């Protein structure tokens, strides 16, 4: 930023200082810069003087303190402290007055000469940081220390210089304005600020101007409002503009400081351009077999506008009197899609000429109406091999349900629409005729009956017939044939439900016992009418009669009141029901009538003969309830006794059954190995039969014992010693074994030995004939045994 030079400031201050010095010896004076305030105190006075710009005020000596605002220029950067002003009192004439300052910046920013009262600024000041300082002046007697004048505050104001350039605090700016806006249309208002004093001088007076952006825009120099300056600004020609705005202080005069900002201005689109087709004539070739709703061609009208202003709709305005075509708008691509509303036929018409119009969706108020454009569309229909065409899309046929096999029900017809023509073959889609109820002649399309019909089972049969060209089997058409089965009177009427009537013993003659109606599966055109009568054998029935209710129902009446259950509990009344068909059909239905005991109001209470012998006042329901209560009490008693007995049963069997401390005495002598009557020796001979396990009776096991893989006897020839060791190991590791000694039962006697029995009970020879030398061959264990026997034999001989 440009600033005033130090040399100019120094020259100004020196000139002021010389003027002030020349005036001091004769009279006290104060600068008149700012407003002064005088206070009469009587007696001598002290004068506080501030330097001004050459102006001064002569004061009388006999007055009190005279205080003025002192001024100091900001940003002063001379080699020596700048003199701000001088304090002076006239109460003493000698050099005994001492001056001092206190308050804001005293001693740091401002210093005072205690003898002369001169105040100097010691630092460079900035008005934008602090505009004024409040200080307190005090003058005392150097000898006594007493105040010579009352302490009084005064202000030192920092005088502004133009040291701050304008700033745009909110820039850069962005603005929008509609294209084609009138000259003078406001676009945006910008604002710049200047930190200098707006009151003193023109340092903060700003003037705005455009540096870049002319001749399109202008700006008001005072309000900073940017406006349109050029007529007919078109967005389609140019959309964005960069405008540079300058703010300059000092009222825009030479030497002022300035700041700039950029304003980005965009022209907003309006609907000022019509849609325009890319070409005036479109030509399309569309095959005649194009499906309805499928695309046949595209047209597009371009619009230089954007957004909603560029959207258009398409319509056919000429050439489609029959409504064969339609055109829709693709909202994404803004294209017009030409598609079919009705099928094309090459043989009837081969070309079309359409006139298509594109119209803007939005209209601009400043225009005379929505913009439009038109184009011509020529369509050539291309011949295609078309499938056969049925004479009807749906056929409705009727057939009687008693029709004979191979009876012709109806005929379907189809033709080849192509100019060349082709023979047609007809078939039934068997997926629609799973029962193969019908057949069709492949040549002429005649539909015949293949199986008997029953209207009561299926009233309608819907089948699909296909027609195929002989020369091109891929060309297939389908038609639906609905066949209605017509009713004939082939079902006899019958009771609507299985009726069971109840007759009270105390009933009156002529009382209605039951109302009976009938149903018929047939459905005659004139509706149903049923005739009821009793079978010929029951025409003179002494007990019952029937009455026609004239609504296809009858009432069964009792003829007397002497019905008793002891005499006859149940009656069967056969009734013949006949319909009005041609020929009429009839059936015999039996009505079951049960004689029951009723209350005085006629409410049925019991229909069983056994109930008649019950005591008076006790019905069958009450008897059943009593029996149920008795059975329930018996079940509760049995369960209670069973639970008590189960609870009192000890976990360990009684002492007399405990095998641990019992002595079992036998008073007979076994018969040896030949005795098979005393006990079942099969258990010892076949240990595999029980899998080597006998149940324990001395404890109640906590875990279910599961035989292990090792608990089975080996095949013939297993060593007894090995078997016992295995069983001993299993017994030691058995989790169900008690913690006390018990009897372990081993159901294994062995499979025999090659040495035979060691017992002498079966020895046929005497001791003297026995030779034990063979025992030495059995190993060390039997060698000693053989020696003992041999020694005993020799001793006996000696």
UniProtKB/TrEMBL annotation:
The keyword Glycoprotein applies. The chain crosses the membrane at residues 612-641. InterPro entries: Cadherin (IPR039808), Cadherin-like_dom (IPR002126), Cadherin-like_sf (IPR015919), Cadherin_CS (IPR020894), Cadherin_Y-type_LIR (IPR000233), Catenin-bd_sf (IPR027397). Keywords: Calcium, Cell adhesion, Cell junction, Cell membrane, Glycoprotein, Membrane, Metal-binding, Repeat, Signal, Transmembrane, Transmembrane helix. GO terms for cellular component: adherens junction; axon terminus; catenin complex; synaptic cleft. Residues 90-168, 169-277, 278-390, 391-495, 495-617 form the Cadherin domain. This is Cadherin 8.
């Amino acid at each position: 930023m440009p600033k005033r030079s130090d040399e100019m400031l120094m020259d100004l201050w020196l000139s002021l200082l010389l003027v002030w010095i020349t005036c001091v010896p004769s009279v006290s004076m104060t600068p008149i810069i700012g407003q002064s305030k005088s206070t009469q105190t009587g007696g001598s006075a002290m004068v506080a003087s501030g330097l001004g710009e050459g102006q001064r005020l002569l004061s009388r000596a006999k007055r009190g303190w005279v205080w003025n605002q002192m001024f100091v220029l900001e940003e002063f950067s001379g080699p020596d402290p700048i003199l701000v002003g001088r304090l002076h009192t006239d109460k003493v004439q000698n050099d005994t007055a001492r001056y001092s300052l206190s308050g804001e910046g005293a001693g740091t920013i401002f210093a005072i000469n205690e003898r002369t009262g001169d105040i100097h600024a010691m630092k460079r000041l900035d008005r934008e940081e602090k505009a004024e300082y409040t200080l307190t002046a005090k003058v005392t007697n150097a000898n006594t220390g007493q105040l010579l004048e009352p302490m009084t505050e005064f202000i030192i104001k920092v005088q502004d210089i133009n040291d701050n350039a304008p700033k745009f605090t909110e820039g850069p700016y962005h603005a929008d304005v509609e294209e084609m806006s009138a000259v003078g249309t406001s676009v945006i208002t910008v604002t710049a600020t200047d930190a200098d004093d707006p009151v003193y001088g023109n340092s903060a007076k700003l003037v705005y101007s455009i540096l870049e952006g002319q001749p399109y825009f202008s700006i008001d120099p005072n309000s900073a409002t940017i406006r349109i300056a050029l007529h007919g600004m078109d967005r389609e020609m140019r959309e964005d503009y960069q405008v540079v705005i300058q703010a300059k202080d000092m009222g825009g005069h030479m030497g002022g400081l300035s700041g700039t900002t950029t304003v980005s201005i965009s022209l907003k689109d309006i609907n000022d351009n019509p849609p325009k087709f890319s070409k005036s004539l479109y030509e399309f070739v569309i095959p005649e077999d194009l499906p309805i709703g499928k695309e046949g061609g595209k047209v597009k009208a371009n619009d230089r506008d954007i957004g909603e202003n560029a959207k258009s709709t398409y319509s056919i305005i000429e050439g489609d009197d029959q409504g064969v075509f339609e055109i829709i708008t693709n909202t994404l691509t803004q294209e017009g899609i030409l598609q079919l509303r009705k099928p094309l036929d090459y043989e009837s018409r081969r070309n079309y000429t359409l006139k298509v119009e594109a119209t803007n969706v939005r209209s601009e108020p400043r225009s005379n109406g929505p913009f439009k454009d038109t184009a011509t569309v020529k369509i050539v229909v291309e011949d295609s091999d078309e499938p056969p065409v049925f004479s009807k899309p749906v056929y409705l046929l009727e057939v009687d349900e008693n029709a004979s096999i191979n009876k012709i029900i109806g005929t379907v017809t189809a033709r080849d629409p192509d100019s060349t023509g082709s023979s047609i073959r007809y078939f039934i889609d068997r997926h629609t005729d799973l029962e193969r109820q019908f057949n069709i002649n492949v040549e002429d399309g005649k539909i015949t009956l293949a199986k008997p019909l029953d209207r009561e089972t299926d009233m309608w049969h819907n089948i699909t017939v296909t027609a195929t060209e002989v020369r091109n089997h891929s060309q297939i058409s389908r038609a639906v044939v609905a066949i209605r089965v017509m009713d004939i009177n082939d079902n006899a009427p019958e009771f609507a439900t299985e009726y069971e009537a109840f007759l009270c013993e105390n009933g009156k003659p002529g009382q209605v016992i039951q109302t009976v109606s009938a149903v018929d599966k047939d459905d005659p055109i004139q509706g149903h009418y049923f005739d009821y009568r009793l079978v010929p054998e029951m025409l003179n029935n002494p007990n019952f009669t029937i009455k026609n209710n004239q609504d296809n129902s009858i009432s069964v009446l009792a003829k007397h009141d002497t019905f008793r259950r002891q005499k006859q509990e149940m009656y069967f009344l056969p009734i013949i029901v006949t319909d009005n068909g041609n020929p009429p059909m009839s059936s015999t239905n039996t009505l079951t009538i049960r004689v029951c005991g009723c209350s005085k109001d006629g409410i049925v209470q019991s229909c069983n003969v056994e109930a008649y012998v019950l005591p008076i006042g006790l019905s069958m329901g009450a008897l059943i309830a009593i029996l149920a209560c008795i059975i329930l009490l018996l079940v509760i008693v049995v369960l209670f006794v069973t639970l008590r007995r189960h609870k009192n049963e000890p976990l360990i069997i009684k002492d007399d059954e405990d095998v641990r401390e019992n002595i079992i005495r036998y008073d007979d002598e076994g018969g040896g190995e030949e005795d098979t009557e005393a006990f079942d020796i099969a258990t010892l001979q076949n240990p595999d039969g029980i899998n080597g396990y006998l149940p324990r009776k001395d404890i109640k096991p906590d875990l279910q014992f599961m035989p292990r893989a090792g608990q089975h006897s080996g095949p013939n020839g297993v060593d007894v010693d090995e078997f016992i060791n295995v069983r001993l190991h299993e017994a030691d590791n058995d989790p169900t074994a008690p913690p006390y000694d018990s009897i372990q039962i081993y159901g294994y006697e062995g499979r025999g030995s090659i040495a035979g029995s060691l017992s002498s009970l079966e020895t046929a020879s005497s001791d003297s004939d026995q030779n034990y030398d063979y025992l030495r061959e059995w190993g060390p264990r039997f060698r000693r045994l053989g020696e003992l026997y041999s020694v005993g034999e020799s001793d006996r001989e000696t």
